[in-house]
Amino acid sequence: MSQNHHYDVVVLGGGTAGELVATGLARAGRGVALVENRLVGGESPYFACVPSKSLLRSAQRGETWEAAVARRDELARHCDDDRIVARMAEDGVTVLRGRGRVTGAGTLDVDGTACGFDDLVVCTGGEPVVPAAGGLADVPFWTSGEALTVPDLPRRLVVLGGGPVGCELAQVYAAFGSQVALIEPAGRLLIAEAPFAGDVLTGVLRRMGVDLRLGAALSQIERKETGLRLWLSDGGTIDADRVLVAAGRRPRVEGLGLEELGVALSPGHGIPVDGTCRVPSESGRIWAAGDVTGLARTAHAARYQARVVVENILGRPREADYRAIPRVVHTTPAVYAVGIAPAQAEERGIDLLTAGYDLAATARAAVDADDRGRVELYADRSRGVLVGAAAAGLHAEEWMSEIALAIRAETPLSLLTDVVHAFPTYGEAVEAPLRELAGHMQT
Length: 443
Known about the structure:
Blueprint (H helix, E strand, L loop, with lengths): L1 E11 L3 H12 L4 E5 L12 H12 L4 H13 L3 H11 L1 E5 L2 E5 L2 E4 L2 E10 L3 E3 L12 E2 L1 H4 L8 E5 L3 H12 L3 E6 L10 H13 L3 E4 L3 E7 L2 E6 L4 E4 L1 E4 L3 E3 L33 E4 L10 H15 L13 E3 L4 E6 L2 H7 L3 E7 L4 H6 L5 E7 L4 E9 L2 H4 L1 H9 L3 H4 L14 H11 L2
Parallel strand pairs: 1-2, 1-6, 2-3, 6-17, 8-15, 9-10, 9-15, 10-11
Antiparallel strand pairs: 4-5, 5-6, 7-16, 12-13, 13-14, 18-19, 19-22, 20-21, 21-22
């Protein structure tokens, strides 16, 4: 093993969280090394948000697939590996290419080179979950990474999974002319969110020609002379040229050697962290941020945890608060959710008050000639504050931010009802449910 190099902080994994942690600490004067065996920057430039919105915007403009791909790829070039590494070097970060594995307290091996550290930050992200369907491992399939980087436009595409990424990519490819089928074992789309959100997208995708197979799972897949044939658990079949796996992600924790530090790991679960994003361990100062924690499944949540880690390593105590982390599906119309969903309130024993409003009733809907959408707000009756919200509508990810702030700040309903929104905007849609909730609190 090569001679040991010691750093104040070693960041294991160079995705969204890892990049921000390393850069933030280096700018503060710490000696930082970032270890990554793939692309620095991770999948964040290509994990649904920027490229899918770029492709959908191109579809709205009537652009060709070739023009849309060129626009998408031009955006990606601004955050490619070489540019990110160069920027990090300017900030003082040492990038070590290779696989990192903890070998003991304060030591890490990177492909034969030993590194010492005072603090270790694990930001290894997540990896796609591949369904255990017969034959799937024997055929070429895409994950979101391939689907948003390749130039191919399949004639027949099957999407496995009706979560955020599956819905986004189904819409992208349908918009450019692919015959898209989406398979979701649950009975509806976006199972983790309020039912109306999935219902809105169900209607939108079906109007675009997407064949939704809800309540069915993939049982078997085989190659045929004309492509692929998929057999479903309900007895149905689908023919395809390409399969896209969008069945969720799991934290990437295997092979890191964290057991050498006494870190307790459970298969399929993220690295446990406390409110400061510190990892309980028997030795050393260990931290984690991003997908690998199981708590930050979006790029913006990973960025939030990264800031928390940086502050704590620099001796400025800070705890993460996950009550108001937005969850966004970048479809058209978009789906936005924040705080707890109705099903979670029932699990937690919260006496939830619900009020909603259809966007068709807003003046802005008349301007846009689009009445597909709704907003729902959820309040804790016992405390008189908002604890959750969901919206499905054009640009919902833009005009719902004030609700995220209200949840985070626990703003009283009586104050929220006194906020005046510009006319005509979709933001007006929250006024009626806020007044309804406030009225319930007075009874």
